[in-house]
Design a protein that fits this description.
Elements: H1 3-19, H2 24-31, H3 35-48, H4 64-76, H5 82-89, H6 93-102, E1 106-109, H7 118-132, H8 136-140, E2 142-143, E3 160-163, E4 215-216
Parallel strand pairs: 2-4
Antiparallel strand pairs: 1-3
Helix pairs in contact: 1-2, 1-3, 2-3, 5-6
Amino acid sequence: MDKQLEKTVLRRMVIQYHKDGLSIRKIAEKVERSKSNVQHIIKTYRQNGQTNAIKPPGRPGPTEQTLRRLGRQIEKTPAITGKELANHLDVSRNTVQKYTKMTEYNVRIARKKPLLSKKNINKRRLWANKMAEMPLDYWKKVIFSDESRFSQFSDAYRTFVYHKKNQAYQAKRLQATAILIEQISNDDDGQNNSDDDGQNNFGDDGQNNGDGGQNVGAT
């Protein structure tokens, strides 16, 4: 039964019971509604003789099927744009914004995927612990330079994704730190590389290089 018709039938039943002299409590028990709801229907009937349910003003909201369809599309492609969602649902972009709020999705900047693996992190931790135990004579041979910010990969590019609370670090909602890495340095294993001239390169593990017999480090 249509909801509007169902409300009209309910109102007419309440009004008829009221005309028959039943109390609000008895009517509420018969129609299985709250006493405040029954009282409101009777009050409206007394004021303007209304027996039919009035359709609420404004456009109807989205159906449950539409919201589920929106949620499935967002879960399938979290980085989808509002324009693409609007075309998918055949609605305006403003409507998409309202619908996404109803489904508790928010548009946020994608978190960057950590560049280091657990294996790399563990190796760097071991190297740091080893360096902490080095004697003073070792550090006298190290050349320290001023701190300077550098970025191996551009951080100007941002990707926006849809996600709910506590979904920021899901794999499909992360932004790649590097789009393509074809060559990975062998320095990750903590070993030094040698050039053709016999000098050692300074690798990710912070080991000595052979330039002048001194160690090069950075604070």
